[in-house]
Amino acid sequence: MSGGDADMMEAEAEAPPSAPPREVGPASDPNGIRNLLVMARKLINQGKPSQALEAVIMAMKIQGGDIAVSQGLSRAQELYRNKIQATSAADELASLFAECAIAEAIPLQPQIPHQMTSEEEPIEPDPQERSILAETGRRQVMLDAFSDGSSFVCLQCGGLVSNQRKEEHYAFWCYKA
Fold it and tell me: Which of 34, 104, 134, 168 has its CA at a distance of 20 to 30 angstroms from the CA of residue 151?
């Protein structure tokens, strides 16, 4: 081996790896997996959920391969669907109560035809408008999100999206973007 080769090997050994090793199996380093999970928690706290998910998937891949990742994601999807089904009835009831409260709070006014100018925009969604949330009995979620300003309705797909996740929604989730 020449002196140049030895110097290059030392430089590679000293340089931090750009990505964690992608070995699969029980011989994997448990500290590497632990470090990935710690990094995922830090990313969540920094408001970077997509990057945190990538770190968790890498840890799962190191521990159990692609099969473990597939099984984990399937299980998470199943838990999410079960949670949605369980809360659907309660959300529908809350939505009905909210509609009653809104109907009582809004004074009855005669309908005067009004031409909206291009500068005017409705501040709140129309409570009678049909949306995915309304159709699934979760209209109150949308009304709450608009009232506190934490979310917006995507004009392309109609999804309710947190303002913090706007770029990620358009980049990864919006099917019409």
Answer: 104
